[in-house]
Write a structure and sequence with these properties.
This protein is α+β, with helices and mostly antiparallel strands. 16% of the residues lie in helices and 22% in strands. It has helices at residues 2-10, 48-51, 85-91, 140-154, 173-177, 296-307, 338-352, 372-378, 450-462, 498-503; strands at 20-21, 95-102, 108-115, 125-131, 163-168, 213-217, 232-233, 248-252, 280-281, 311-317, 383-387, 408-414, 425-431, 467-475, 480-489, 509-514, 520-523, 527-530, 542-547, 553-560, 564-571. The protein has a six-stranded mixed sheet with strand order 2-3-5-4-10-11, with helices on both faces. It has a five-stranded antiparallel sheet with strand order 7-12-13-6-8, with no helix packed on it. A four-stranded antiparallel sheet has the order 14-15-19-17, with no helix packed on it.
Length: 573
């Protein structure tokens, strides 16, 4: 029963949009760019079976690997990990737990890091998973993030040794600890601009030890209540043009403490961290913060993402969803370059390969202003994909345009007393009952998607950019080496986004020539930068002429922020 209550109350929580301003990221401190070779895409590989029709008549494969073996027992159904982040770290030596920030209320932001148990070197590529930035998102989304970490911890040997996954399951612990559902943290705010902070917050009007929602008659309100409304039903938003007149106003449960005719207009709402990031931040809007990244936690998260260049992919669990299809563009989410739209298609294909049920697909929904997603993509130039579990994209009731969860209903109970508006009623959230059957609808669990998202992260890790030398030719006479080569990306993902290249948010590939003692570079550049390589693409030809003692080793290194380093060694003739 306790689990049911938590799930039901969690699904009443609300997501918000976000606010932001343009913030151009200064270019990273680098050596002045050298001449950048143009990238060229190699010709597509030819399918041998299509090139030689005779090969299509060969004997069929011995077995279809995707076909179930009737002699093998069926796999056990997936059971999501239901423990805490601390317990997970204590149970696995290859799972680390660290505090990356502290909330305004003094609560830790706990970051899990999962690596392959056999990894001998630090990771080169990191995927970062985050949930719970908006405090009124359902709490089971944070449970989903921990479930993802739990599955990866149990299957960590599947992770490439060069890869790590970081999971920040609860990015707003203050909101999760609050008695009343709210989007923000514990930062004090003066929403009504009267010089007092948090002086008129929610109150437990009906004494049930739960702070919920209250409605009262108001012809300018947001709700439309029919005279014959059922005892338990879903709330109906007012739409006068569609025959749904405005009849009631919806407010947090509470009293008019300061006797100004308003209810809970200046409660402990805090700052909504999901709207406090820098890209297109909007000022002077309640709950967004006094300025971009005004919250210490926001700055710590941004510092973490910017400082660790190995973080290549951010998976955000919340209201923004780009895992279904392209959500289109808006002021906070400008149109992406064609290459980045193709990148999102690739990421979606990796999600599809997890065989996610169609029923879980929601509506596409772009990140809003001041959001983490818009900042990661348009300012940091990183890969980002948003996922709304169980299709719950966009806002959550009672925000505008929110969709009421079909498995829940509301029962309203009249209340009266000092400080309460006439006709006030307090809401109780109850399970919705099927019309034809006297039983409640099943309560969905976001944690059921943990296996799918973990499989997606594994697929993305294996598809990451992988740069190496190709087409190398070393010639010359005694004491002179003529060296020609190219750099190719053999992965399915680019070295970084086209948007990242445009805003200089990502460090390019750097090619360095390391000469033996006494050798000289007669032609070519000692340092070359290659801005970006798409999947399967190769750079233009790189050429050098080196003189030196015969037998000396010339070392060419290529490295990127999240590709590691590949080395080519040639000897002087």
């Amino acid at each position: 029963m306790i689990v049911r209550r938590l799930a039901l109350s969690a699904l009443l929580l609300v997501a918000s949009s976000a606010l932001a301003q343009d913030g151009d990221t200064p270019p990273p401190a680098e050596t002045p760019p050298a001449e950048t070779p143009s990238a060229e895409t190699p010709p597509a590989e030819t399918d041998p079976a299509k090139a030689d029709p005779a090969k299509t008549d060969e004997a069929p494969d011995e077995a279809d690997p995707d076909k179930p073996d009737p002699d093998k027992p069926a796999p056990e159904p997936y059971e999501p990990y239901a423990g805490t982040a601390t317990a997970l770290a204590e149970a696995h030596v290859h799972v680390g737990l660290a505090t990356v920030a502290t909330s305004a209320g003094g609560r830790p932001f706990e970051l899990l890091t999962i690596t392959n148990p056999d990894a001998a070197e630090p990771p080169e590529w990191i995927a970062f998973v985050i949930a719970g930035l908006h405090g009124r998102r359902p709490a089971d989304e944070s449970e989903l993030a921990v479930a993802v970490a739990g599955w990866l911890a149990d299957q960590a040997e599947e992770l490439p040794p060069e890869v790590a996954v970081q999971v920040l399951a609860d990015a707003n612990p203050d909101a999760r600890a609050a008695r009343h559902p709210r989007a923000g943290n514990d930062t004090r705010v003066d929403d009504d601009q009267d010089g007092e902070w948090n002086e008129d917050g929610p109150d437990d009007v009906n004494g049930d030890e739960h702070l919920g929602w209250m409605r009262y008659p108001d012809p300018t309100g947001q709700l439309s209540v029919a005279a014959d409304e059922a005892e338990t039903s879903a709330p109906v938003w007012a739409e006068p043009t569609k025959g749904k007149p405005r009849t009631h106003r919806l407010v947090p449960e509470g009293r008019d403490i300061d006797d100004d005719g308003l209810w809970n207009e200046d409660g402990p709402g805090g700052v909504d961290l999901s709207r406090n990031f820098t890209w297109r931040f909007e000022e002077h809007v309640p709950a967004t913060g006094r300025w971009p990244a005004s919250e210490v936690a926001t700055k710590r998260l941004m510092d973490h993402l910017v400082a660790d260049e190995r973080i290549a992919l951010v998976l955000e669990i919340g209201g923004a969803d780009t895992s279904v299809k392209n959500p289109g563009s808006n002021e906070a989410w400008p149109k992406l370059p064609d290459d980045d739209n193709a990148l999102l298609d690739t990421l979606r294909s990796l999600l599809d390969e997890t065989k996610r049920a169609d029923a879980l697909k929601g509506r596409p929904h772009a990140p809003g202003p001041g959001s983490l997603g818009s900042t990661v993509v348009h300012q940091f130039g990183r890969m980002w994909i948003g996922r709304a579990p169980l299709g719950r994209s966009g806002a959550v009731w009672p925000d505008a345009d929110a969709i009421w969860p079909e498995h829940l209903a509301i029962r309203w109970t009249p209340v009266e007393g000092a400080g309460l508006p006439p006709g006030a009623e307090v809401a109780s959230i109850v399970p919705a009952v099927l019309e034809a059957e006297d039983e409640p609808l099943p309560v969905p669990s976001a944690a059921s998607e943990g296996h799918d998202l973990a499989a997606f992260l594994l697929a993305a890790a294996k598809a990451r950019a992988d740069v190496s030398f190709t087409g190398t030719a070393a010639t010359g006479s005694s004491g002179v080496l003529r060296l020609r080569t190219k750099i190719v990306n053999t992965g399915r993902l680019p070295t970084h986004t086209a948007r990242g290249a445009a805003v200089r948010g990502r460090r390019p590939l750097n090619v360095h020539v390391v000469l033996p003692r006494g050798a000289k570079l007669l032609a070519g550049k000692p340092h070359v930068q290659i801005e970006r390589l798409g999947p399967g693409a190769a750079s233009g030809e790189l050429a050098w002429v080196i003189s030196g003692a015969s037998g000396g080793s010339v070392r060419i290194e290529v490295s990127g922020p999240d590709t590691g380093t590949d080395v080519l060694v040639e000897q002087i003739p």
